[in-house]
Amino acid sequence: MAFRFPNDFLWGGATAANQIEGSNTTDGKGLSTSDVQPFGSFGELIPRHGGDFNIKDIAIDFYHRYPEDIKLMSEMGFSCFRLSIAWSRIFPQGDELQPNDAGLAYYDKIFDELRKYNITPLVTLSHYEMPLYLAEHYQGWTSRDVIAFFERYARVVFQRYGDRVKHWLTFNEINVTLHEPFTGSGVPRGSSPQQLYQAIHHQLVASAKAVKACHEMVPNAQIGNMMLGAIQYPLTSHPDDVFEALERNRDWLFFGDVQARGYYPSYMKRKFRELSITLNITEDDVQSLKETIDFVSFSYYMTGCVTTQKTNMTMMDESMFKMGGNPYLESTDWGWQIDPKGLRIVLNELYDRYQKPLFIVENGLGAVDVPNENGDIEDNYRIQYLNDHLYQVGEALQDGVEIMGYTSWGPIDLVSASTAQMSKRYGFIHVDRDDQGNGSLARKPKKSFYWYKDIIESQGEGLVAPKQ
C-alpha cells in the first residue's frame, strides 16, 4: 500500500479489566456484575459461592504479569494501549464516599509502566461491568442514584490519573443494553423497553457528567463515547428493506447522536411515543446532555442484513445483534461474517454524521489457534483479516475521514466476553491457558505479532490490497 498513515496515528491494542486482570477480590476489590457471568455475557447469571470455578477469577493474570505484557506490546511498537479500570476496584460496592486506596495504587503502577515505554493509555471507565452491589441493591442503571455514584468514581480517577491519562472513554459499547441488559447496565434480562431506556437515559446523563468533569479537571485531555458499530444492510433493494435497515441502524446510532449532538433526536421521540415509553428526564438532565464528547469511538467486527420480505435468510445466532447473514460474505469460526469494506462504510457514515474525529477501538478475529509441530502459531488467517480491515482504514483516511487511531481487540489472548472461552483467541500473543483453566499462563508471540510490528513500523505502508 503506497499510502502512509499519519505520523500521529495511534497504533495499539484493546482489552477489558474483567477479561485480563483476574485477582477478582484482591486488595479490597468488590465483586462486579461480570463475576456472576462465569460463562460470558450470553450466559445466565450464577451467584458466587466459595470454590466456584470462574475462568475470569484468574483470566490471564494481567494483575501480576502486566510488566511482561506491556513490554511485549512495546516490542510490537504500540503507541497506544486501551484498557479499562475495574470500577469495583476503586469503589467495591459503588456507593461508598471514599475510594479503595489499594485499587487506586494498582492502576498507578499500570500507568507508570505504560509511561516508561511511551505508550499512550486509552482508558474506559466502565467496560461491561459495574459493582455487583449496585445491580443487587439499586437495580443497576434503572436507579437515578447510580448517576451520582458514577460521577464520583469518574472524578476520583480523573484526579488521580489525569497527569498520565489524556484519552478517556465513558461506557464500552453503550448500546449493548438493548441486547444484553445485565452486561450493559446491570438490568435483568426480560426488562421492559420502559426500564431499558430509562437505564440507558441514566447512562447517557452519567456519561455527559463525566465528560464535563473531564473537561474541567483534565483540560488537556480528550474524552469520547464508545459504541458497538454493527451496520446493517438491506437484503434487497425493496424500499421496505431499505427503510428497515435505516431504522435498525438508528437503534445504535441514537447513542452517538445524543452524545455527539447533545440532545435526543426526533426519530427516537417518535419511537418512544409508539412504544408508550415515557422517560423521566429532568431539566438538569437536558442541560447535562449538552456537554458533548470530543471524539467518537466504536468497535467493528461484522455487518448484517435485514429484510421485511419472506425469505430463507440465514441468521447469525452467535452475534449479539442476531443479525441476518449476507450471502456475499465468509464467516469466522464463531459465525461472525467478515466484511472489511463495511469498516470503510462505517467510518465514512460516522464522519459524515458527526464531523468529529473517530477512533477504532476494537476490531479483531476470534479464531481457534492450533500450534504447529514446533509449538508456533502461524496465524495467517488473522494477518489477512487485519490486513484487509486496516487497508480499508487507509482508504477511509484518503476519503478525508479524520481517524485518531486503531486498537486491535485482544492484542494478547484473553477471556472472551460473550462466551468466557480462552479457545476463542484474538491475540498477537499466545497465552497458555485453556477453557478449563489449565495451563502455565506463559506468553509467546504468534506470527501476527511480527506482522503487526512491521505494519506499525511502516505506518501502514506494508498493507496489501485485499484479494477481489
Automatic annotation (TrEMBL):
One of its GO terms (molecular function) is beta-glucosidase activity. Pfam families: Glyco_hydro_1. Keywords: Glycosidase, Hydrolase. The active site is at 362 (nucleophile). GO terms for cellular component: cytosol. The keyword tRNA processing does not apply. GO terms for biological process: carbohydrate catabolic process. PANTHER family: 6-PHOSPHO-BETA-GLUCOSIDASE ASCB-RELATED (PTHR10353:SF122), GLYCOSYL HYDROLASE (PTHR10353). Belongs to the glycosyl hydrolase 1 family. This is Glycoside hydrolase family 1 protein. It comes from Vibrio casei. The lineage of its organism: Bacteria, Pseudomonadati, Pseudomonadota, Gammaproteobacteria, Vibrionales.
